[in-house]
Amino acid sequence: MNISKSILSFIFLFFFFILNGQILPVRLTTEMAENPLAVVQNQPKLSWQLISKESDASQVAYLILVASSEEKLKMDDGDVWNSGRANTDKNLHIVYNGKPLKSETKYFWKVKVWNQVGKVSKWSKTATFRTASLESDLNPIWIGAITKADSHLPEGRNYHTATFNREKKNSFINASDSLSRRSIMLRKPFEVEKAVKEAVVYISGLGHYELTINGKKVGNSQFAPLWTDYDKTVNYNVYELSAKDFQKGDNVIGVLLGNGMYNTLAERYTKFFVSFGPPTLFFKMKIKYNDGSEEIIKSDRTWKYSKSPITYNSIFGGEDYNANLEQKGWDRKGFKDRDWKKVVIQEAPKGVLRPQTASPVTIQKQYEVKTVKELKPNFYVFDMGQNLSGFPTIKVKGKRGQTIRVWVAEGLNEEGTIAQGRSGKPYYYDYTLKGDGVEEWTPKFSFYGYQYVQIENINYKEDKNKELPTLVDLKSNFIYNSAGEAGSFACSNEIFNKTHELINNSIKSNFQSVFTDCPQREKLGWLEEIQLNGPGLMFNYNLQNFLPATMQNISDSQRDNGLIPTIVPEYVIFGGDFTDSPEWGVTGVILPWMYYEYYGDASLLEKYFPVMKNYVDYLGTKATNHIVSHGLGDWYDYGTHPAGYSKNSPIALSATSHYYYGAYLVAKASKLLGKTEDFEKYNTLASEIKTAFNKEFFNEETKQYGTNSQFSNAVPIFMDIVEPQYKEVVMQNLLADIKEKGDRLTTGDVGNRYLFQTLARNGENETMYRMHNHYDAPGYGFQIKFGLTTLTEQWDPRKGNSWNHFMLGQIEEWFYQSLAGIMSDPEKPGFKHFFIQPEVVGDMTFAKADYQSVYGKIASSWEKKDGKFILTVQIPVNTTATVKLPVAKNSEIKMDGKRFKTGFDEKAQKPVLELGSGIYTIECTI
Hints:
With 926 residues, the chain is an alpha+beta fold. Helices cover 23% and strands 29% of the residues.
């Protein structure tokens, strides 16, 4: 009801102000988040978007008030900060400059602005932010069932290894029922005798937790807190509670703990076996009463624990639940816990306790059974219609003690049974019935990538066999990060539409605590996917708060010698090129730049400049005469050879080009940040690497690089390594190879982006269209024809392991930037100024995309109709756009029904319009 009122209020204000021709600040954010609960910075950055009915609207000044209470703010009393009128068009990343902020304190703020003609807006709606705790304020006490010393779990980070002696491995296995790996319930009764104003909870339950107050779940997270390298960083979550969450008299805090990545198990399937310690809990709740007094409830020796009904939980192996072990009402008042045991004080995790600022993983969608087959009596396989990351929900009825085993998988064997051979086996869920009518169960601490569900020895819906339990209902839960979607794309080409859907289902499946490679076999954060798919990721999803957490993980994982490993967090050390590959490690250099370009925020460049610099320095120690020769190269490049290490292109060419790119970006960052000495050093280094690269890999006779492969020639064009006088001929050689291959690619995981963007940025979008508008392998169409619902690890899904990988999804960048034509301007980051320059290719008749930039919604929609090209664009308030039209110079052009005289871009050979904010329809003769 409150949400509905809020929406209606916003709509009313929106129409009231824009109908009166006013500008209005909306969607206020602090540190890029709406009403955040754990702001770490002493000088947080405040931002807002602007709306106006008028076209060409902009801001010329603002005034911000920050107050210690909502009441003071309503009285226009900025007792914490009154910015005064600031004459600037800046509405993003305004640095707070008021009184020193106190920790664990809530602040209230609002803003008003002046538009381009000096008219002042109404005040915005009130926004809030709460400052984080200092670790000294938290003073964390960790509790659980067993100390790490008594658990006999392995010590030391050299145990984080993928391969080791089976006997040694088995010596470390503790039965999942032992306290070192067992899911436990913890409870703490407390009394409330006064009227509660508010309460704030600070909690970290490792590996994962579920928190209840008086039996009601707090928050909607799955797998909280998000994964980290627990030796370096431990996330805690913050929740706000209100008076309605408490009752007068007795109240109970309940916490359920599971293993997660903190404490993996070696039973059933596991990719690796690592432990940072047994399940553990830190908790603090500060209650504020109406009379001004406060009370703090913390994790301490007064808590009690008991084993939970979850008898097995492994992030890799599955989950088991015995309903007969349930203790009804355990997290409510009146429960008798005399048989529960007192908790022990545990060793604290080694990592720094930091507030989780990235959004949580939640259940986003739910799927019903699409089809079902009874392969033999009482043996069922269910097709849920969508490959996804998640877990099932079952409703069953039967006799006490009966067990239903639920198998899940991405694909099927020839006989129709589920196939886990490629994705990691055995993985399953066991549910033991209590025999009390219809019982419903959803796992809490394990997920898998699957589309099919197999259950044996059951009735389905009808009680045909009285000796077997009956499955009453089955659903599939799709979990992924709740950051939210930023964009959408559609066009007249069905292959491209379905490709967009395939890729995004794979991104969502792997959008967990980190961007994973696959949601079943590994669940690891292989870094190259983030930077190579970066533009597509940012066009599609709101990553303002997720990517800073990624950079923290990268910083935590960087070795003392500067190496950034291929996977982050580095739970397992694969060794060799699988730990150290430049195309993967350079993500730590590229990602802060992408963040700056898309969000206009240089904070990651500022904070992680040492990480960037140290990684480039590390590559320098591996170089001989500026040539780096190790790594995986263009991983999974396409050909008749088995997928894996680069086969079509030299690994040294790939590694050295990324060494150059890293040095170039560090030089660029040095210049932006005013680090003159560093700029001179890395600018010189980049120049030297470029010279060495061309000397080593460029053949002046053939005018080709490396092995003449598509990757070999595309990457030096994309990175601007090729000397200007040779660029065109190298480009023609690249096109000749594509044509010779029947307009098919030969690149892989690394090379795809460089190939696609080299073509797109050099006027070869028709080649891109032909390369992807087919149903053959290699290509997205082949996977569509194969009937898949997610993108696979290999172009031919019959050859790869995972059917849920997004690493080949680099075409998303082309969909948004080329087909729809939404292109950022690097000179004015964050889309303060941008380009709309759609490409009309092949037989396409329309394309449309929108993107929620930090300034507001950008949209581009074009169609070919009745001999005309019609383009509709939306430009946010306080931004400008350059529109380049894909028509001839002498085309008749009308805007909003009126003739319009345009400029002309001689280089692009296109008519050009310069536009301010607003929605425009441009009509051109073809």
